Amino acid sequence: MPPTDTQSAAPEARQTVTSEAVLDAALTLFAERGYHGTALSQIAERLGIRTPSLYNHMRSKQELLETLVAATLRDVLTDFHGAVADSEDPVVQLRAATRVYALRHATHRREALVVNRDTTSLPEPALTEMRERRREHERAIRSIIMRGIECGAFAVGNAGLASFAILEMSVSIARWFREDGPRTAEQVADEYAEFALRICRYRG
Amino acid sequence: MPPTDTQSAAPEARQTVTSEAVLDAALTLFAERGYHGTALSQIAERLGIRTPSLYNHMRSKQELLETLVAATLRDVLTDFHGAVADSEDPVVQLRAATRVYALRHATHRREALVVNRDTTSLPEPALTEMRERRREHERAIRSIIMRGIECGAFAVGNAGLASFAILEMSVSIARWFREDGPRTAEQVADEYAEFALRICRYRG
DNA sequence: CCTACCGATCGGTAGG
DNA sequence: CCTACCGATCGGTAGG
After folding, report:
1. Is B21 within the bounds of a domain?
2. Residue B105 in contact with residue B173, Cβ under 8 Å?
3. Are residues B24 and B122 in the same domain?
């Protein structure tokens, strides 16, 4: 029984929930309980609507996951390209690339948790495409490290091992970071950027 | 219709599946699809029995998860205490502690994936207890780093941040390590142990 | 170890 | 946006 105010003239005005709100609620719950641990009824409840009403804003539960993961990985790569555009110096690039990646995991914790926990629940071909995007990022980091080794700035036995370590320690920030904690996201990101350089044995 | 051989004399001999086999099948599937993404029927199918027969070897699906997580965290702490027992030197201790932790994540990938992905699916009080065990490990690593800072071996602004980074980069080995890959588990563990010292700015 | 079966809940559709 | 409803599957029990 909707309120009998002026808006009842336009039928479209009855819509109380947007697709963005559905995605946001799904993101929160997927991050909290995992994709398979979340029921559509819980997403609906959080929005104050009934389950079937969700289908006005999405095609399926799977599509929700796919949208969230694709958007997150797209943003990660955009961040990366922005971070390395300013300089050709591998030291500057690795610091900047690690900084934005670490920063994103502190400021977008839910997205990070879902991507890392539930990407494997995606159906093909999305699964393969998402894996390819992550690999693209990893290869780009590795290539920076290899250039750093070549020019003598870094000294690390295996660039692949180092790039995995750097990326994954950053990912884990999403597991423990708290906005109301003792350190800001920027402080953590700066510190992790230095960790990355140390892993590569950069003696600044 | 069991084979009509000699073993049919003893009724107990009909048992074809052990609790260990159930746990192992659950471990494989939980690691692959997550706890909520795995049905008991899939565990049974993998063992060649019917779903209700599983209940001869377990009390509930939840108990399977609880058993797996508790055993893994117990082993992690046992590893840790064994690794740091030989020396009081923070450098030696951090290297050894990281080495065994990294090694475990290369050799026990399934356990690591389940602990990291599905511990949050545990009911209380198991959830709190498992979190406490992980925190215990983290505090122990942090304490080694702090002692290293005090005696001048390490130079890192924040021991907590460093311990998180070291532990989580090691955890991630379970995500990418392959037994048939180019590096042995021991080689990876040794390399990560050096990464840990570098993060703490140990200038060996 | 099995068959037979349970209530609950799942994602999703029909139709308004 | 809703109610009414669907078949499928879930974890688990009864009883042998």
Report:
1. yes
2. yes
3. no
Structural domain boundaries enclosing A158: 66-199
Cis peptide before B125 (omega within 30 of 0): yes
Measured in angstroms, the CA of A199 and the nearest CA of chain B are apart by 5
Q: CB–CB of B168 and A171 under 8 A?
A: yes
CB contact under 8 A, B195 and A165: yes
Residue A13 has pLDDT above 50, yes or no: no
pLDDT in tens, B80-93: 999 999 999 999 99
Gap from B175 CA to D11 C1', in Å?
Answer: 30
Contacts for B173 with CB less than 8 Å, ≥ 6 apart: A164, B102, B105, B106, B112, B188, B192
pLDDT value at residue A3:
37
Is residue B5 included in any domain, yes or no? Answer: no
Q: Does B188 touch chain A (CB under 8 A)?
A: yes
| Average pLDDT for A155-174 | 97
Over range A143-159, report the average pLDDT: 97
Residue A61 placed within a domain:
no
| Domain identity same for A99 and A44 | no
Residues A87 and A146 in one domain: yes
Going by pLDDT thresholds of 50, 70 and 90, the confidence category of residue A15 is: confident
Closest CA to B56 of B17, B13, B14: B17
Answer yes or no: do A31 and A104 share one domain.
no
Q: What is the CATH number of the domain that holds B25?
A: 1.10.10.60
Q: How many domains does chain A have?
A: 2
Query: Measured in angstroms, what separates residue A2's CA from nucleotide C16's C1'?
Result: 17
Is B148 found in the same domain as B68?
A: yes
Residue A32: list chain B partners with CB under 8 A. Answer: 120
CB contact under 8 A, A191 and B157: yes
Mean pLDDT of A73-84: 98
Chain B residues whose beta carbon lies within 8 Å of the beta carbon of residue A117: 34, 117
Q: Are residues B80 and B100 in the same domain?
A: yes
Query: Does residue B52 sit within a domain?
Result: yes
DSSP string, A123-175: PTTHHHHHHHHHHHHHHHHHHHHHHHHHTTS---S-HHHHHHHHHHHHHTHHH
Tell me whether residues B120 and A201 touch, CB distance under 8 A.
no
